[in-house]
Amino acid sequence: MTTRRVLVTGGAGFIGSHLVEALLARGDHVTVIDDLSTGRWANLEHVAADPRLRVIVASAAERDLLEREVPGHDLVYHLASAVGVRLVVDQPVRTVETIFLATHVVLAAAARYRRPVVLTSTSEVYGNSPRLPFREDDDVVMGPTEKRRWAYACAKALDEFLALAHFTETRLPVFVVRLFNTVGPRQSPHYGMVLPSFVRRALEGRPLEVYGTGEQRRCFCHVADVVEGLLRLPEVEAARGKVINLGSQEEVTIRGLAERVVALTGSASPIELVPYEAAYGQGFDDMQRRVPDLGRAESLLGWAPRTRLDDTIRAVVESWRAGQAGA
Ligand SMILES: NC(=O)c1ccc[n+]([C@@H]2O[C@H](COP(=O)([O-])OP(=O)(O)OC[C@H]3O[C@@H](n4cnc5c(N)ncnc54)[C@H](O)[C@@H]3O)[C@@H](O)[C@H]2O)c1
């Protein structure tokens, strides 16, 4: 494989930093654009001395910057985004603006210089869809605009529309990936991410707070598996102009996740149920289940997740014990 110059927006974030590490490991030159809003410099510290890495602390919505940087790269990964239920509920203006404005600017520059773009979207786009597993061509079922949490899903759906519109109009190579819950070392607990919150609390001996009944189920995929899919995506011509799910199909209830964290850490922490209203205010919507159909990922990318949930939890616990994880 030839050495490439790759631009990663959001590269100082959780998934972005793992992607940057993998790109450097295969010999690429990498430029990160990150405003460090939810990301951290510490996420890149272990690769900071690599001369093939450049980090620009700035917003991906800065048009002039993107116009300057995109032409010098062969490929763009666009991960910069407002992320996390807590942040989405507390800062709805920032959520909508960050997501859509940055994507607009990144895609416009990529279109002008015809650079392929991988866009990270989310399983939230499926909304309340009752059909499981979620397939990329399923209808999306959004909640009302009066419920703030839907702002994230709608803004990400608009990102997808815009990316696919560029593909339709000019055949700009775009790859849209819908990530399901992704977890692993370096994920921050600050913005409503459940696994790092549970692990931190378990290690500190504090109660693990499970929202709602705890019977809602999710599938958690190890970030290393997700990165493997992200690396393969732009290599596959048949994936251009397509939406592709990446995630795990191993379901667990949130209460079950809490129990596993307690068991795997050997913690004495109790598990407490907290009503959604207490956590997020009135009118919070949550989905009961979210499972990806992986047919496209398998047939187009030859991709399937490899890491079992218990191993993923162990990896997160180890990273917290080693003091690396997301302060
Ligand atoms: N982690 C998951 O479970 C998950 C699930 C679905 C989708 N995603 C998507 O994956 C991508 C990465 O998410 P993550 O979990 O690594 O979150 P993260 O918060 O760790 O990473 C996002 C990064 O983008 C940066 N950023 C935000 N706004 C920016 C802007 N305007 N300009 C430049 N940088 C900006 C942040 O500082 C951060 O480093 C996001 O697009 C997110 O929507 C993540």
Main beta sheet strand tally, sense and closure: 7 strands, parallel
Put simply, the count of helices is 11
Radius of gyration based on Cα positions: 19 Å
CATH architecture label name of the domain at 5-182 and 223-247 and 291-306: 3-Layer(aba) Sandwich
CATH homologous superfamily descriptor of the domain at 5-182 and 223-247 and 291-306: NAD(P)-binding Rossmann-like Domain
Could you tell me the strand content as a percent range?
A: 15-25%
Strand order of the largest sheet: 3-2-1-4-5-6-11
The global form is: globular
How would you portray this structure in words?
By secondary structure, the chain is an alpha/beta fold. Helix content is 39%, strand content 17%. Helix 4 runs parallel beside helix 5 (150-170), helix 6 (194-204) runs parallel beside helix 8 and helix 6 (194-204) crosses helix 11 (309-321). It starts with a strand and ends in a 6-residue tail after the last helix. Strands 3-2-1-4-5-6-11 form a 7-stranded parallel beta sheet, sandwiched between helices. The protein has a two-stranded parallel sheet with strand order 7-10. The protein has a domain at 5-182 and 223-247 and 291-306: Rossmann fold. Bound molecules: nicotinamide-adenine-dinucleotide (NAD). Nicotinamide-adenine-dinucleotide binds next to helix 1, strand 2, helix 4 and strand 5.
SSE order and pairing:
Elements: E1 5-9, H1 14-25, E2 29-34, E3 53-57, H2 63-69, E4 75-78, H3 85-90, H4 92-113, E5 117-122, H5 150-170, E6 174-179, E7 182-183, H6 194-204, E8 208-211, E9 217-219, E10 221-222, H7 223-232, E11 242-246, E12 251-253, H8 254-265, E13 271-274, H9 276-280, H10 295-301, H11 309-321
Parallel strand pairs: 1-2, 1-4, 2-3, 4-5, 5-6, 6-11, 7-10, 8-13
Antiparallel strand pairs: 9-12
Bound molecules: nicotinamide-adenine-dinucleotide.
